[in-house]
Amino acid sequence: MELGAAPARALDQRTTRELTTTARTLLTDHDHEHAHEHDDPAAHRELLSAVRRAAPALSDRTHHACRPVDTRDGLYVLKGLPVDDTALGPTPGHWSAAGAAGALHDVVLLLLSALMGAPLAWEGQQDGRFVHNIVPSPGHERAQTGASSATLLSPHTEDAFHPDRAHLLVLGCLRNHDRVATTAASVRRARLADADVELLSRPLLPILPDAAYTGARAHAGEPPAVATLWRTADGPRLRYDPAYTPLHRAAPAHRAAYRRLADELARVSVAVPLAPGDVLVLDNDLVVHGRVPFRARYDGTDRWLKRTSVRVPGRRTRPAAERHEHGYGQRTVEALA
Ligand SMILES: [Fe+2]
Fold first, then answer.
1. 2.170.150.70, 3.40.50.20, 3.60.130.10, 3.40.50.1010: CATH of 2-186+271-313
2. Ligand 1 centroid to residue 182 C-alpha, Å
3. How far is the CA of 195 from the centre of ligand 1 (A)?
4. What is the spatial distance between Cα 168 and Cα 70, in angstroms, rounded to a whole number?
């Protein structure tokens, strides 16, 4: 696996100062009106609405830094945001224990996300928050979710089970003393035979909801079969989550094609060890992401990422059939500007 090959966009000091100052003002105003309501989804929505109203007034330089993903592979890393490790406090042991920890970084990430599109939340994940905390949690070491550590988090499309999944995935790093690598593999680099693309474009297997969603797995609807790959004028796109795809149900030829795709994604995968202040932006239709295994200490110094999901208004690059999927009863929430 290549190391650190993700293209970088450096934020200059003027840009980071503007983002931090704007975030601090928004947070102060919000806290003034909603003291002690950090766990109230309605309060989160109001804060996000304020963020969406503030974002257009940011400088051209900041807008430029958040321009659409224009790299061949469909990803980049924004660099240069300040993170004060001491002021941050200990890494929480579970997302639900995060409270308002790192709230300023939440708002900075939301400002960046609001410049890229419309940040979205899930009613059924992390209490409907717009910014998720990704921290290793005791008892989840071997899960295929962001709370894991000891196991390889296999490459996947974020929220692949759902037709309203993000177009862009944004991962902001607050702490990563051990330089644990996030992995990213672009379908644009994968060498795929036409016959495999054709076969994997047929909707033959479902992608089941992942373990982070409360309630989704109890949904009574028949899991819809979905395409793994599809062609667009601009090359192939993918929707891929092997850990939640019942591959054993597929015919041998389909299974073999899926495995060749998996091998290719492993071959082109790059390791991106995010440093504090780095913000990794991935096109969720082009790039699958994962994480290498690591040993969690649970002593307040573990790796800590913040995550947002972004919908890009007007993007029409997904198979039309997706619109009829039930999404296992899971719904996204978007805050109005
Ligand atoms: Fe993920």
1. 3.60.130.10
2. 10
3. 29
4. 13
